[in-house]
Every structure is written in C-alpha cells, then in structure tokens.
From TrEMBL:
Pfam family, one: Glutaredoxin
Highest taxon above the source species: Bacteria
Organism: Mycobacterium ostraviense
Protein's name in the database: Glutaredoxin domain-containing protein
Domain Glutaredoxin: 5-59
Source species taxonomy: Bacteria, Bacillati, Actinomycetota, Actinomycetes, Mycobacteriales
Signal peptide annotation: none
C-alpha cells in the first residue's frame, strides 16, 4: 500500500525530467506532493548530501518501506502503479526499497 509519494523538483530553470515524472505519475493515477527544492535550501542540501545528483528525487512511502530514486524513471513509476493494483506482490525488480 502506498502511503505517500513526494516528488522533489525544481521549477526555475525548468526541469524536463521533473515534468515527465509528474505527468507519468498522473497518467498512472498516483497522487503525489510536489516540493520545489529552490523554496527550501535545507531540503536542497539534504538531497545533495544523500548523493542525488539530479532531479527529480521521488520518495514513495509504502507499507513495505521507502522507495527512492532520482531522474525520470518510467519503469519505476509503472512498477509502483502495478503495486497499487496488485497489493501484496511487492516491488519486483526495484532494489532501493528501504525499511
């Protein structure tokens, strides 16, 4: 079960991978909260500290743990959507699930 999805983005300059990610999540029916990293320097620093060199950074909190990735990853979005429709099957093929 997905508890929350947060997409960390940048709007100025425009981030094309961020836009693609948001569109794909929307097409797959996955609700998300968008956070612009330029609005909060602490969030931007935390993302950099964690080693993410590109945006967007997507954090999906689920009943199994936390799935985190950077960049436009349609494969991960599709797997997340499949998980919603077949709850209990886990995140097959996704390696960054953190409890």
């Amino acid at each position: 079960m997905i508890r929350a999805v947060t997409v960390y983005t940048r709007t100025h300059p425009k981030c094309m991978q961020c836009e693609q990610t948001k569109r794909h999540l929307g097409r797959r029916g996955i609700a998300f909260t968008e956070v612009d990293v330029d609005d909060d320097p602490c969030i931007r620093e935390a993302i950099e500290y964690l080693g993410f060199g590109s945006l967007p950074v997507v954090v999906a909190a689920t009943s199994e743990g936390e799935l985190v990735w950077a960049g436009y990853r349609p494969d991960r979005i599709d797997s997340l959507a499949a998980h919603v429709t077949s709850a209990g099957n886990g995140f097959s093929g996704l390696s960054q699930v953190r409890p």
